[in-house]
Amino acid sequence: MSSLLRLHGTPLSNYYNKVKIALLEQGRAFEEVHALPADLWPQAGSPTGKIPWLQTPDGHCLHESAAIIEYLEETRGDAPSLFPVHPVDRARCRELVQYLELYIELPVRDLYGAAFWGATLETGQADRAIQQAEKGLKFLARRASFDPWLCGDTFSQADATAWAHLTTVQRALHFVGAGDLMATALPTLPAYLEKLAARPSIAHVINDIRLELRRQSGKS
Ligand SMILES: N[C@@H](CCC(=O)N[C@@H](CS)C(=O)NCC(=O)O)C(=O)O
User: Fold this and answer.
1) What is the pLDDT of residue 1?
2) pLDDT tens-digit profile of 125-154?
3) Is the Cβ atom of 50 under 6 angstroms away from ligand 1?
4) 126 neighbors 111 (Cβ within 8 angstroms)
5) Taking the domains of the chain in order of start, what are their residue ranges?
6) H helices of 7-124, where?
């Protein structure tokens, strides 16, 4: 059994990267194990067939990125916390994660099949996703600080989540001709995403995405 945390999934998954950024920010030792979404339960995989999941050093498997992030927070020891100090600010950080996931990423996920895997776009599908994403971005704008990070002056789990999801959402919106939507709804977003990309944890993740894409194109 490995004595390290083992993160299962692929560098091309936004939810995997949300957790990976947290592990890197905390400076945790971990191994990456390649896994794709598949319904292999109970022999392997996750109960939902989704990635990521995290194997703990004592052999337990944890599923759902929000639960995994809570586990990392609770077991961090001296590693930095990815949540603000004050309980109200901590709750607000989790609130922002919810806005990002429920009201922006989830509706736009409906476009991923067409944007990333060659599926056919159905009538009205793009318009529905665009309308909902616009609403979600409005919710985020109402509560996020962007000064300079979503919760204020300290990088938090909300920022790790924002980078993972917003960059994926941006690519899907671009595919349906709505590439300007995010910057129009939230003019601070392009500079914020650039600042995130310069952070060592996120630069590491970006590099791993490039390597994975290169590995996949070398295969075909
Ligand atoms: N709520 C899950 C969402 C994870 C998720 O949707 N992962 C995607 C990859 S980014 C996946 O496995 N999709 C395959 C599927 O939905 O069957 C979490 O927070 O971990």
Assistant:
1) 62
2) 999 999 999 999 999 999 999 999 999 999
3) yes
4) yes
5) 5-74, 87-219
6) 14-26, 65-74, 87-98, 106-109, 112-117
Domain spanning 5-74: CATH 3.60.15.10 = no
Dihedral sign from CA coordinates of 98, 50, 12, 65: positive
By the 10 Å C-beta count (0-12 exposed, 13-18 middle, 19+ buried), 40 is classed as exposed
User: How far apart are the C-alpha atoms of 68 and 103, rounded to whole Å?
Assistant: 21
Tokens 């961090």 -> residue = 76
Whether ligand 1 lies within 6 angstroms of the CB of 37 is answered as yes
Residue 172: φ, ψ to 5°? -70, -40
What would the two tokens of residue 212 be? 């994975």
Is any ligand 1 atom within 6 A of the Cβ of residue 161? no
**pLDDT tens per residue across span 38-70:** 999 999 999 999 999 999 999 999 999 999 999
Question: How close is the Cα of 41 to the center of ligand 1, in Å?
Answer: 15
Distance 94 CA to ligand 1 centre (A): 18
What is the per-residue pLDDT for 65? Answer: 98
Residue 96 one-letter amino acid: L
DSSP state of 32: E
Q: Is the CB of 47 under 6 A from ligand 1?
A: no
The CATH fold of domain 87-219 = Glutathione S-transferase Yfyf (Class Pi); Chain A, domain 2 (1.20.1050)
Which residue, among 89, 69, 86, 91, has the nearest Cα to 23 in the 3D structure? 69
Cα diameter, the chain:
52
Q: What are phi and psi of 8, to 5 degrees?
A: -100, 135
